[in-house]
């Protein structure tokens, strides 16, 4: 079966090669030949959560020089053992590095990291690069871009589509926007962490795109949970439901993994339920700002709120399943 | 690229072989070696719509003896040229054949076909097999099973998950329930029309399962349309949105095809919008009967109703997109 | 305060007199002078539930000759003590009476009562009047009207807007449609049971109108529950919320009574939760048949389904409150 | 009819007297005897929109000394003719007055008014009272309370439930919270503008309460529009629907006025559609912050967003009707 997976990956890669446009960087060369040439720029990384941990691991593995910082410092230890350096504050990391990435949980955390005491802004000097990887709203990105560039810094946003697993595997999909030269300078980093990366114009665009992607993912997850629970409620086998689903046109890694986990009662966070709910909220609000109705996302958001009330915030998004059975 | 697809198909087949349980018939042997041994039973087929046409074509291609009937008789001509015989009424088809399939649009049509004048029931004799392929509610299946068996007939329901394209390609996923011996007698038919078939117990189960699958599909379709339109409303490229989506975990044939069609403004019906709305309605109503909330399906249903009011009933389900831009 | 209520009632009556069109029968003369002249026709009544009981009581009080039947016969005893006669079957009641009313729980019950063994239809003879008071879908009304009139019977539908309390008080609002002469023959009955009655054309119209009214009521009830629970969740006094609500433009008997009951934890059925959910379902389905989106009703329906899953079916509709706190 | 209305108002007043708790100020004495004793404090008023205009008018009528300011200065002229003084900036108004009210459109406007250049904060000195009447989110209130009191000012929030009509009639319902002594100092002002006022504790509570009330009102309005349009779509008379509705338990000033206006095609703003949508959004977001699902409000919000996309923002909230017919 493992052999098949390798063939499958190659086939997928070839297929993509043919059909995808040139604006996409085939970042996943690592998946094929296992090596990239790391940039000699000093890399900083702020935030070692579900996504950040995998990213830093892959940066180190591919030979990057990385300085890390995390709100709770203990999480840094593991990476220091793997060769990372320790920064005592966000400001210090930025001062020590050429390019600093951050990956935190929500708009408030992203803003505090930059604007707070000993924050990123204290370390920004002309030429320094700052890359915001957190999924936040476009207004936050615009604000951060402004304060960074007003100090002479260079700003890129680069939120990722994926999960802890994909982050660990270096298979994230990266959507970047802002200063194109930063995007190019980071080339080896994005290759280390991701399967593919996209550059889509001015700062704010990646936030918009990522919120919409996560809105679709969050709504789909709720829909799958609704299907699985309705199967059970009507006396059908959930496993058979999943089998049929995975034989049809809708078959995808996402459906397969989330359903398997649900059936095994495994809600270990791959992407926090509270974060997908935040993304839904921000996407709905973005729709609000352009008078675009989003009834599916609105319905999904309410289901996730119920799941949060059932104490599922820190479980995987698939724990929305529990909102349907309680 | 074509070569890759062949490899991919083999890989998928091998992967499935390993991981799927024995209750599933690997109906897609045709995909590999291109031949099956057709049953020598005389096959009847009632209803030559989007799905029925492809099925009959494949039955004939694989050497079955098929008698067809359709409400508007002209549609039969093409199949007669391909070797089918013509039945003048549903009753006559059933009389002439050992096993009769029907594939019509909704519960009312399915019921009328059986119970109406010159209907199926008039032709049922002990031993005759009747296979209902239409996606209807479980109550209708139970009722049809009862009347057919009360005349000595043998009943199987076998709704399919798929589209016109998959039907033409003989790649449908078949979910069957009812009389297992009928399921086995039809083996070569299911191989001719489908990629895989499942047998899941007593009559009504397949209807339940199929309604849930279509509910998930209908809700997902609406979610995708919501994402695509929100992308546009916020100034993002829909093509890029699709590219990113298709590089991530949610990538699937369904997402790819539906989005491509939408971006090309191609709403030629592969599965009628009015039919997916009917399926959503029936699934919601099934949830109602077991007091199971289905807020995602309820939201989706309202979006499809808006699309119907915009005259999209006879377009493909992807035309739900238009409910978001008008 | 009681004195004030009398003034208020007079004021309301005067106000209505002035502003309402002539198609409305001021049925509530009883509220003013306490007496009406009962018809000398023999009245039958099938179904002594929450609504039926109050109606029969008032019919008897105003001097009508009434024969009653109920599925569980014990419920008849009380009315027999008040002067009613007992019919052994629906057919017998119809045979014994000139005008027979029925008031049961849902379309299936209404249909069974007419078409079942010893049903209404067995007793229908030319000239017999049959009045369907149950809130059902228009299709059921059309079907019943057809079978009754095909036997020479005269058909009227007369669903009511109200509650057990209003039924007991003879303050229902009656919406009638069908055979106008039946409506006129029943004049004294409607005066006995109702505050006002409307005649709105051909059979089916009253069902449509009543479903829409109940849809609005059901959605409003869910909205009120949502407000009360959000008040609590955000640390506000529910009593103060109610006080403010009742001082504003939205103040109504409905808001006041339902909120008071909720705050007292009193969910004794005035109108069954399962019945308002059924009404929502039928209204949504009616919207479906004309491609009219009803997103508010769809959302409300899901909340009621959750309440049903929490075992609130036989409580008052206000128990939808519990869907928000569990 | 006019006579009846007077009786009705008295009756209502008497009824309220009996049943309401002591924490409510019977502000509507003016409705009975037409006079109050105005405070001799100098009153400032910022914002002469739909609500502010009526309030200022009534403050002047009842003998208050009022200084006004509005973003577009022309709107002040009318009030200057009625005896108001003109302030050139918010800061100047606050400097010139003891108690300053503000009534603007949304959280951003409220914040800018206080914190912006020549804003309220510039004029705040120890002892100055500032009363925020705008309906905003509790976070904004908390923030404003903090900055005002940090300068020695005294803060009260006093959002109102009502409409332009009620504002003109001095019949608003006022919900106040914050500094109780300010509430008492304003007694004559609240009597001039309102029917009743409530004091409900610490700053933020009134915002919470008002958002919930408006959420209920906004959802109910959407529900009514849904009912009216479904009536039409199913061939029923909208006028008859309204007549029946107004004879039942749900009858209220709100239902009556909104429906009459809709039937007359009159969407002149009494409360802006864009403002009720903003209130829904803020209420949903408040629910979000306490993990409380608000599916009805979420559905309503989407309908209002559709109405906004149809260019109904500056019409009355009842124009949500148009979202159902386009």
TrEMBL record, chains A, B, C, D:
This is Cytokine-like nuclear factor N-PAC. PANTHER family: CYTOKINE-LIKE NUCLEAR FACTOR N-PAC, OXIDOREDUCTASE GLYR1-RELATED. Belongs to the HIBADH-related family. NP60 subfamily. Residues 42-201 form the 6-phosphogluconate dehydrogenase NADP-binding domain. It comes from Sinocyclocheilus grahami. InterPro entries: 6-PGluconate_DH-like_C_sf (IPR008927), 6PGD_dom2 (IPR013328), 6PGDH_NADP-bd (IPR006115), HIBADH-like_NADP-bd (IPR029154), HIBADH-related (IPR015815), HIBADH-related_NP60_sf (IPR051265), NAD(P)-bd_dom_sf (IPR036291). GO terms for molecular function: DNA binding; NAD binding; NADP binding; nucleosome binding; oxidoreductase activity. Keywords: NAD, Oxidoreductase. Residues 204-324 form the 3-hydroxyisobutyrate dehydrogenase-like NAD-binding domain. GO terms for cellular component: chromatin.
